[in-house]
Design goal:
The two termini are 34 Å apart. The protein is 46% helix and 21% strand. The protein has a four-stranded antiparallel beta sheet with strand order 2-3-1-4, covered by helices on one side. By secondary structure, the chain is an alpha+beta fold. It has helices spanning 2-6, 22-31, 52-61, 76-84, 88-96, 99-103; strands spanning 11-16, 36-39, 42-46, 66-72.
């Protein structure tokens, strides 16, 4: 359990008010030294809740208004799924498989 919790990565998800500003925000955060992943129009920043105000200020300094700023701490389930590389659907299907089906 301790090892799994140690793998937990807190992060902050940001969304610009206007989708056209997403790339600009991404560039500004990267230039500021933040570790940022871009998925669709959400920027996932490796940061704890204590840094959320800094992220908001960085967006403001870049002239960008945020429509969302969400602090996320991965659950033990999220960590397990990441470690196993399986999705909820795959795990449910595996549980539904009978021993005879699994032997095939």
């Amino acid at each position: 359990m301790t090892e799994m919790l140690a793998r937990s990565r807190p992060h902050v998800d940001l969304r610009a008010e206007h989708a056209r500003d997403t790339e600009k925000l991404h560039a500004a955060l990267m230039a500021g030294g933040w570790e940022v992943d871009l998925a669709d129009d959400v920027l996932r920043v490796a940061a704890t809740a204590s840094r959320s105000a800094d992220l908001n200020r960085a967006a403001t300094a870049a002239g960008i208004t945020l429509s969302e700023l969400v602090v996320v701490q991965e659950s033990l389930e999220d960590i397990f799924l990441t470690m196993t590389g399986r999705t909820d659907g795959e795990l449910a299907a595996a549980r539904a498989t009978t021993p005879e089906e699994a032997a095939r």
